[in-house]
Amino acid sequence: MYKTFRKLWKAFWEPVLRFPFIQWLIAAFMAVAMWFVYFTCRKKITNWHVFKQYRRKPAVFVFWHGRSMMLSPIVCLGGMRAYAVASRHQDGRMMAKLQRLFGLKSIYGSTSEGGISVLRQGVRVLKDGRFSMCMSPDGPGGPSLRVQDGALYFAKMTGAPIIPVCYSCSHSWFQNRWDRYLVALPFSVITCKIGEPIFVNPKASPDEFEETRKKIEDIMVKQLRELDGAFNLFQVEQDLTAGEFKKHKKEMKKIMKNKGRK
Q1: What is the gyration radius of the CA atoms in the chain, in angstroms?
Q2: CB distance 184 to 69 below 8 Å
Q3: Is the pLDDT of residue 15 over 80?
Q4: Which of 53, 88, 178, 234 allows an S-S link to 242, with CB 3.0 to 4.6 Å?
Q5: Residue 23 burial by CB count (10 A; 0-12/13-18/19+): exposed, middle or buried?
C-alpha cells in the first residue's frame, strides 16, 4: 500500500515540479526558512577579511556539496557578486532559483553534463573581472569529499585563486543521502571557516596540477573535520557516490524486508 502511494505521489509531483512558478514558490519558502535559521543563530566566521577581499573579484569559492545551506545567507549579507554552478536537472534549476534569491546568478551544467559549456562560461565570467564563482568540487553526484578538476581549470586558465569555505553548526540534521547534506537548525552556533587563497600555476605540469588538487582537497577535508569535530558531529564519509548510495539503500531495504518476513 505504502509503495503504491509513493509511486502515485511521485507521478503527481515530478510533472508539477517542472513548472518554473512552482519552483519559485518552493525556492521562496526555502529562502524564508534559511533566513529564519540564520537570524536565530550565533555566528563565528574565520578569515572574513579574505572574503571581503575577493567577494567582487575573480576568485573561485569552493565548498562541499553537502555544505551550502548557511553559506547562502553569509554571501548575501556580505555583498558577494558571483555566479554559481547549477545542475541542468529540475532539482538543479530549483536550486538555481534559490541561489538567485540570495543574489547569485547561475551557470547551468556540471562535470558530467555540459562540462565544456560550464568551463567556457566560467572563464568568461572570471575574465570579466567583476565577479567571483561558487561551486561544489564534489558535485553533482560525488564521490563525496573528493575535489574534481573543474575549479582548478578555472583557476589555471584565468589566474583567479581558489578559496575553500566550509561551515558547521552545533544543532544540525544530516540528510540521508550521498553528500550527507547538513541542515542547520534554529538557535544553533554556526561556525564558518574561509581558507587562504590558493593559486594554480598556468604552466603546471600534470603532476603539479594533481599535487595542487590534492592540497586543496586535504585543506577542505581538514576544514570539515575540525568544524564538525568541535560539535562532536557525525563523521561524513569520503568517496560516496549518488549511484552507490542509492544501490546500498535498496539492498538494505531488501535485507530488512526479508528479516521482517522471517
Answers
A1: 19
A2: yes
A3: no
A4: 178
A5: buried
Please provide the CATH number assigned to the domain covering 2-256: 3.40.1130
Residue 157 is which amino acid? Answer: M
What are phi and psi for residue 232, nearest 5 degrees? 55, 45
Residues 6+ apart with CB under 8 A from 42: 188, 189, 190
pLDDT tens readout for residues 80-124:
999 998 877 767 788 899 999 999 999 987 655 557 888 899 999
The rounded distance, in Å, linking the Cα atoms of 133 and 61 is: 6
- C-alpha 92 chain-centroid distance: 11
* pTM as predicted: 0.90
Q: CA 238, 244, 245 angle in degrees (round to 5)?
A: 75
- Asked if 63 and 111 count as a contact pair (C-beta separation under 8 A), the reply is no
Grid coordinates representing 231?
Answer: 560539535
Q: How many C-beta atoms surround the C-beta of residue 192 within 10 A? A: 23
- Domains of the chain, by residue range, sit at 2-256
The pLDDT of residue 110 is 63
- Taking the C-alpha atoms of residue 246 and residue 231, their distance in angstroms, rounded to an integer, is 28
The cell numbers describing 50, all together, are 579574505
Identity of the residue numbered 151? A
